[in-house]
């Protein structure tokens, strides 16, 4: 019997959470029955639903829409109409284009610099966002102190982040767990502003070798899904540039990236696959004060919430076809973000419905049959 116990404990080591010695005698059955090997039960396939938006771009006009008489800022009204949509997702991810102002310093800064109040982090979280990429050409518009304060404010609001860092150790992939699946969020920008000598680690600047190394490090840490969040492209250019295509081809060829989400052109861009990996080339600026002059096209008010389902079944990860829910920013009336499906809402004033319908058709011309059902 002693030998039997030793053999059984060895056979089931790692498979049972508690000891099983004495089980046969307690149940009044033979040892052979009590210790029959259980059938293997594989973990069920898990489906995660991600929602992505592009730039949160707070020009001075956007801040004025949030400015309150008591000196505080409230951005919640800007996101109110897409808040129900954000509740669909296991993870809703945005791009934080600008830093948040340090307490005691002005929120408003001179163009072309960008800034927002600390309340923006709170209001993004309340709206339903879970995390934001922070790698941006504006990340140090409020110098290093502003960069660090931005991450502190996001932490306080419960917003995850990737792309900028307070320490060299924070620079790498951001790992988080959703429904038992370990996900990696990697964020890079095409250029950083001024950084103190020796502190280039504070902002991830596009380098294909570093991106691939980050993705592989995430895999080695156990990440089952790796999402690359990139700021790239050229202002107002709808089609992906040669540089965008070269970077996408290089990083997807590694086999370590599951999905690429891009922004920065401030207009919506197409969706396609590169080396079998879905690339959302550009999500536009979901909120901005563009067009701020005649040089900006109407398309700069168009953006989207993009839904992507990812199924994890054992070691197999399947990324579903992206679905696009286009949006339009009403910069004339509080910078409120509207789903373009609101064009069919008779309770909305006719002039606004006409603008929403025009936005919907502009977006349809760019993303085609990636339009989600019910958009119109």
Describe the structure.
By secondary structure, the chain is α/β, with parallel strands linked by helices. Strand 2 (91-96), helix 7 (119-127) and strand 3 (131-133) form a beta-alpha-beta unit. The chain is globular, with a radius of gyration of 24 Å. The chain has one domain: Purple Acid Phosphatase, chain A, domain 2. The strands form two sheets. Strands 1, 2, 3, 4, 11, 12, 13, 14 and 15 form a nine-stranded mixed β-sheet that branches. The protein has helices at residues 2-11, 23-27, 31-34, 60-66, 76-79, 83-86, 119-127, 143-157, 208-220, 242-253, 350-367; strands at 46-56, 91-96, 131-133, 160-162, 174-178, 181-189, 225-231, 259-263, 271-274, 277-280, 285-287, 302-313, 316-319, 323-330, 336-339. Helix content is 27%, strand content 23%.
Descriptive labels:
Purple Acid Phosphatase, chain A, domain 2, six-stranded mixed beta sheet, 15 strands, nine-stranded mixed beta sheet, alpha/beta, 27% helix, 376 residues
Provide a short characterization of the protein structure.
With 376 residues, the chain is α/β, with parallel strands linked by helices. The chain has helices at 2-11, 23-27, 31-34, 60-66, 76-79, 83-86, 119-127, 143-157, 208-220, 242-253, 350-367; strands spanning 46-56, 91-96, 131-133, 160-162, 174-178, 181-189, 225-231, 259-263, 271-274, 277-280, 285-287, 302-313, 316-319, 323-330, 336-339.
| Gross geometry | globular
Instruction: Return the structural class.
Output: alpha/beta
Q: Separation of termini?
A: 72 Å
What's the CATH topology label? Purple Acid Phosphatase, chain A, domain 2
- Could you give the count of β-strands? 15
Instruction: Please state the CA-atom Rg, rounded to the nearest Å.
Output: 24 Å
Report the uncertain regions. Answer: 1-38
Beta-strand content bin: 15-25%
Assign the CATH class: Alpha Beta
Sequence of secondary-structure elements: HHHEHHHEHEHEEEHEHEEEEEEEEH
The structural domain count equals 1
Count of discrete alpha- or pi-helical segments spanning 4 or more residues: 11
Average pLDDT metric: 89
* The CATH H-level homologous superfamily: Metallo-dependent phosphatases
């Amino acid at each position: 019997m002693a030998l039997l116990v030793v053999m059984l404990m060895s056979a089931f080591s790692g498979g049972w959470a508690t000891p099983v010695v004495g089980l046969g005698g307690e149940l009044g059955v033979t040892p052979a029955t009590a210790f029959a090997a259980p059938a293997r039960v594989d973990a069920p396939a898990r489906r995660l639903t991600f929602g992505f938006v592009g730039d949160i771009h707070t020009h001075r006009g956007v801040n004025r829409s949030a400015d309150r008489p008591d000196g505080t800022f409230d951005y919640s009204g800007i996101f109110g109409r897409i808040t129900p949509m954000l509740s669909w997702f296991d993870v809703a991810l945005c791009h934080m284009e600008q830093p948040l102002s340090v307490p005691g310093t002005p929120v408003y800064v001179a163009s072309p610099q960008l800034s927002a109040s600390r309340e923006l982090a709170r209001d993004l979280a309340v709206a339903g966002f879970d995390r934001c990429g922070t790698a941006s050409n504006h990340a140090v518009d409020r110098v290093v102190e502003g960069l660090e304060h931005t991450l502190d404010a996001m932490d306080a609001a419960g917003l995850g982040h990737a792309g900028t860092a307070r320490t060299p150790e924070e620079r790498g992939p951001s790992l988080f767990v959703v429904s038992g699946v370990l996900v990696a969020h990697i964020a890079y920008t095409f250029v950083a502003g001024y950084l103190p000598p020796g502190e280039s680690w504070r902002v991830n600047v596009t380098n294909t070798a570093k991106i691939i190394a980050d993705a592989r490090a995430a895999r080695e840490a156990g990440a089952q899904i790796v999402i690359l969040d990139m700021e790239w492209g050229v202002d107002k250019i709808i089609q992906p540039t040669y540089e965008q295509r070269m970077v996408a081809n290089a990083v997807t060829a590694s086999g370590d990236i599951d999905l690429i989400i891009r922004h920065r052109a401030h207009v919506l861009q197409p969706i396609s696959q590169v080396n079998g990996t879905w690339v959302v080339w550009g999500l536009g600026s979901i909120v901005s004060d563009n067009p701020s002059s005649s040089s900006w096209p109407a398309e700069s008010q168009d953006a989207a919430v993009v839904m992507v389902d990812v199924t994890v079944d054992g070691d197999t990860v399947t990324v579903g076809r992206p679905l696009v829910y286009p949006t339009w920013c009403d910069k004339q009336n509080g910078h409120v973000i509207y789903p373009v499906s609101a064009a069919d809402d008779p309770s909305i004033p006719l002039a606004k419905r006409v603008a929403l319908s025009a936005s919907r058709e502009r977006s349809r011309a760019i993303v085609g049959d990636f339009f989600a059902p019910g958009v119109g």
